[in-house]
Amino acid sequence: MLDARLHALFQDYADGHRHPTNRLTHKIAIPLIAFHVIAMLDWVRLVEIPGAGGYMLSLGHLGWVAAVGWYLTMNVRLALLMALFFAACFPIAAYTPVWAVVAIAIVAWSIQLAGHSIWEKNRPAFLKNMAHALIGPLFFMAILTGDWPPKPVGVRA
């Protein structure tokens, strides 16, 4: 069951993503965009963690904590799944060359914007509401887990 705030955000997001091809482009592009954002933020090293063998705290880690913290205020299960997905991006990013992260960013954003301009014929939702930059990944996680769309009353999952 989704809390009212998350339900409203998902409904608003869904309203701007009705075309099936646009939704497909998002299922491909959003995980890639989340990956490249985490990878690029991880390039910004902030401080060495004492006693961690030279491990550096990065802007990516702070973004991960902030995003997951916000998700936790709305849905613990989805937040934990997103925490795992985001956490998996760090070691993958560590082994991904810079040129590949940049290429992923260009391809993913091209796919995403094509979905909106060619099929949906509207602007990306985050241009209307910046919260949608974080809602997009959570929305598609909710689709994967069967938490969205909501089931009609009396219908079992």
How would you characterize the overall build of this protein?
With 157 residues, the protein is mainly alpha-helical. The protein has one domain (21-145). Helices cover 67% and strands 4% of the residues. The longest helix is centred in the first third of the chain and has 23 residues, at 20-42. The chain is globular, with a radius of gyration of 17 Å. The chain starts with a helix and ends in a 12-residue tail after the last helix. The mean pLDDT is 88.
Features:
globular; two-stranded antiparallel sheet; 2 strands; 157 residues; mainly alpha
How do the SSEs run, as a string of H and E?
A: HHEEHHHH
- Regarding quaternary structure, what we see is single chain
Q: Characterize the biggest β-sheet.
A: 2 strands, antiparallel
- Give the overall pLDDT as a whole number: 88
Beta fraction of the residues? under 5%
| SS element count, helices | 6
Q: What is the helix content? A: 55-70%
- Termini distance? 11 Å
Q: How many structural domains? A: 1
Secondary structure: number of strands: 2
Instruction: Kindly name the structural category.
Output: mainly alpha
Cα shape:
globular
Could you name the ranges where pLDDT drops below 50 across 5 or more consecutive residues?
Answer: none
Which strand order spans the largest sheet, edge to edge or round the barrel? 1-2
The radius of gyration computed from the alpha-carbon positions, rounded to a whole number of angstroms, is 17 Å
